[in-house]
Amino acid sequence: MDFDPVEDGLFLGSRRGLQDFLLSHTSSTVKVLTIESDDLSQVPFGVSEHTFIQVDDLITADLLSHFDDIVSFIKSGLLAGAVYVHCRHGVSRSATACAAYLMTKHGISADDAVQRLRLCRPCVSPNAGFRRQLELYERLGCRTSLDQPEFRRYRLRAAAQAAGMDLSRLTTLSQPLLVADAGLPGTAGPPAAVYRCRQCRTALFSEHSVVKEQEKAVRMVKGW
């Protein structure tokens, strides 16, 4: 059986281990979180709620932007019963998700969360990019908001990387950094400051897309 208990009600495993897990937990409500490149072909019988997050197991992939939603999903699922978190092999993506949850719940560091997971599942090994995202999540106080300059810079970098890979993912990453305007569909809520073209008054970007000189100076001192 390719799954392991993390703590009461929370299980970490592979796609292959999901069916075995469901066969052994017929008496409890089960919620499943899938973090893969492709969703399950069909949700197995016995799953009360299923959430799919499309993320590749690459060092450039963005999982941090989903951490808050992941933590909320696990928390709500544990109130109702059991939660099974999986990716393809239960090694990198799903382990990163469980680590984010442990950090939030127990107030522990990224390293401690990964080590705790390895005690119950020795194969756990988030890729280098996900490890850096867990460390950033720790610095952000285990919450993400575009009001946080460091998270805002992260989202801008992620959007820039996505632009060179899959343009469909660029929209998801960059929309919150833009501004509500008739010419920019899908954005919501006016930010504190809006920058417009002087001639046609089209909204170009918001304050969230600006890295202030003071922030740049701090990064230079810290070597960012």
TrEMBL record:
<dbReference type="GO" id="GO:0004725">
    <property type="term" value="F:protein tyrosine phosphatase activity"/>
</dbReference>
<dbReference type="InterPro" id="IPR000387">
    <property type="entry name" value="Tyr_Pase_dom"/>
</dbReference>
<dbReference type="InterPro" id="IPR029021">
    <property type="entry name" value="Prot-tyrosine_phosphatase-like"/>
</dbReference>
<protein>
    <recommendedName>
        <fullName>protein-tyrosine-phosphatase</fullName>
        <ecNumber>3.1.3.48</ecNumber>
    </recommendedName>
</protein>
<dbReference type="InterPro" id="IPR020422">
    <property type="entry name" value="TYR_PHOSPHATASE_DUAL_dom"/>
</dbReference>
<dbReference type="Pfam" id="PF00782">
    <property type="entry name" value="DSPc"/>
</dbReference>
<feature type="domain" description="Tyrosine-protein phosphatase">
    <location>
        <begin position="2"/>
        <end position="143"/>
    </location>
</feature>
<comment type="similarity">
    <text>Belongs to the protein-tyrosine phosphatase family. Non-receptor class dual specificity subfamily.</text>
</comment>
<feature type="domain" description="Tyrosine specific protein phosphatases">
    <location>
        <begin position="61"/>
        <end position="122"/>
    </location>
</feature>
<dbReference type="GO" id="GO:0008138">
    <property type="term" value="F:protein tyrosine/serine/threonine phosphatase activity"/>
</dbReference>
<keyword id="KW-0378">Hydrolase</keyword>
<dbReference type="InterPro" id="IPR016130">
    <property type="entry name" value="Tyr_Pase_AS"/>
</dbReference>
<dbReference type="InterPro" id="IPR000340">
    <property type="entry name" value="Dual-sp_phosphatase_cat-dom"/>
</dbReference>
<keyword id="KW-0904">Protein phosphatase</keyword>
